[in-house]
Every structure is written in structure tokens, then in C-alpha cells.
From TrEMBL:
A Pfam cross-reference name: ApeP-like
InterPro entries per UniProt: ApeP-like_dehydratase, HotDog_dom_sf
Official protein name in the record: 3-hydroxylacyl-ACP dehydratase
Length: 166
């Protein structure tokens, strides 16, 4: 995907080119907007049974799993920024270092609900980034259900990091 093929709004098939996640682990359905200068992205995810986190007994996705939806929003923003910089190197892997200040007003997101998410980069030191993430149940983003901070470290070789630190 080149920068001249990067519309402000993207559907799932376009996002699949930005993220390494596949199948049941793919947790982004639409990008509704992004601003690489302000380091913000807005995405949507439709709660459905084919999600890896779907709990049949609960009839939806547990709220704690939203951090992975948010992490994939972070990954999409990083990919967009890389493409807009004309950086043709392979995307770096992101390792979640921490999820802090997690606040949830809803414990389960039911099948059929749409999750509206905003991710904004709060700060960056070297290859470590901190994002403020918010998840809503309405397009106007007035019905806040989850907010948290996620810290991520970009690494060139995830296998090397795991082999040397596990």
C-alpha cells in the first residue's frame, strides 16, 4: 500500500494490509479517521462470534480484551505513519509493556454492538510509546465504556527479544 492509496477511511480489506493479525485475531473493521501529525486514529470493531475473545456464555467479548483491540489500533496508526514517511522497511513489531489506569464501565460487549475507538499517542521516548485509548458504544463518542493507557515498545526482531528474555 502506498501513500497515494491511503484514504482517511478504510474498510477491513484495506486494514488487513496494515496489520499482521489474521483470522479470529484480526480486531479492526473500519478506520474512520486518522491524523498522523496529531498521532490520533479512530477505528471501529463489530462484536461478532468469530472473534478470538468471544465468550459464548457471556454472549460477547469481555471488556478486559479491549486492550488488544486498542493495541491493533496503535499498530494501524504506526503503519499509516510509516507509509506516509515513505518508509519501505518492514513494519516493526510492537510489544505491549503495560496497560495502566484501566477503567471499565461495561464488562461485556454483546454480539452486534459496534465499538468506536480513539487512540492518541501521549508521549514517545526512543522506541517506547504511550497511548491514551478510549472505547465508546456510540459514533458521537459520548458513551465512554473503557479508557486506559497502553505503553508499547517497537522492536526490530520480536523473536530475538523473546528468545533472549524468556
Amino acid at each position: 500500500m502506498t501513500d497515494d492509496a491511503l484514504p482517511q477511511q478504510m474498510d477491513r480489506s484495506m486494514i488487513e494490509k496494515l496489520l499482521p493479525h489474521k483470522g479470529k485475531m484480526f480486531l479492526q473493521d473500519r478506520i474512520t479517521s486518522y491524523d498522523p501529525e496529531a498521532n490520533i486514529i479512530c477505528t471501529e470493531f463489530d462484536v461478532k462470534e468469530d472473534c478470538i475473545f468471544y465468550d459464548v456464555a457471556a454472549g460477547g467479548i469481555p471488556g478486559w480484551a479491549s486492550f488488544e483491540i486498542m493495541a491493533q489500533g496503535i499498530s494501524a496508526l504506526a503503519s499509516i505513519k510509516r507509509i506516509l514517511r515513505h518508509d519501505m522497511t518492514p513494519p516493526k513489531s510492537g510489544v505491549v509493556l503495560s496497560v495502566t489506569d484501566f477503567s471499565a464501565a461495561q464488562s461485556v460487549f454483546k454480539k452486534g454492538e459496534v465499538l468506536y475507538m480513539t487512540v492518541s499517542e501521549d508521549c514517545c521516548v526512543g522506541n517506547v510509546y504511550k497511548y491514551f485509548c478510549r472505547l465508546y458504544l456510540d459514533r458521537d463518542k459520548t458513551d465512554l465504556k473503557i479508557q486506559t493507557n497502553i505503553s508499547v515498545m517497537e522492536v526490530d526482531d520480536i523473536r530475538g527479544v523473546l528468545e533472549n528474555n524468556v
